[in-house]
Specification:
Length: 331
Amino acid sequence: MRSGNRSGLLLSLFVLLSLVSLRADTLSLVHQQRYSMGTMFDIIVYHSSRPDAERAIERAMDEIVRLDRVMSHYQADSNLSKLNREGGSGFIVVEPSLYEVIQESIWFSRQSSGAFDVTIAPLLRKWKEALEEGRRPSAGEISDAQRCVGYQQIEVSAPDRIRFRSPCVELDLGGIGKGYAVDRAIAMLRSDGIRHALVNAGGSSITALGAPPRTKSWPVTVGRKVLNLRDSSLSTSQQHGEILDPRTGSPAETTMAVSVMTRSATAADALSTTLVILPIEEGVRLLGRFPDASAVWMSAGGDVITAYGESRIQWLKNEVLGSNSRTLEPN
């Protein structure tokens, strides 16, 4: 459902690696990639032991792949697909990570008054089918699909049971799943003693742990700018026709991209998806509920239009917002 500035990110990472690796006297640099969740995941680690770093990255990558098998709505044998098929008939025991990410999704739905909603799957399918036929879905088709949409139709029962209150409810975790996977990968790295790492899910969800040797942070591209990221997460969402507003049943009407920075990649992922849907003023009010969050709204060309919580954004080389941009705080 989202896209990021992957080429710009990779460029900044390439420059970083080529410069910092020359100065890493005691820490080995290990970088691995793996394709999962429809994108390329990069994990970069600096550690005193190369074999230990390689093993830690392998475990983190394995966790990402495992989560894809659990949360994919494309794979018929995934835990999510089973829930989508059978959840309308009664409680289904689900894998703990699926239970957790659905619980978090419900929480974000409540915080956003339904602008974020993982029950969006029936609407996504209706739009996909219509567009493949070269048309927009009719008002009747949208209305029929919307009957199946609403986070209130998900019922959870701790520790691991979920059911749907309507047989037509289906979940799509595309607006939160990559962020959750990045958080889990970082947790795996931490448990293996890694203190300096960057996990990147295709440029759309990124978490920086510590910093490379003799630096204070990881440089990451946001639009036409570069910011410093350390012990924090960044998620970028941009409308390409696939982010639907569950309240209207239609694609969010914006060309802007939104980047959100928080401690949690899961939160950044869900918030950036939501802020593409909401008008900027409503988005600012939502962000006011997240004390550690900051956000940047950008034009389709990557120019910063406005920002929230800019005092928490560390631009590289003291970069600041352009003269045509503005900063916002909640009322």
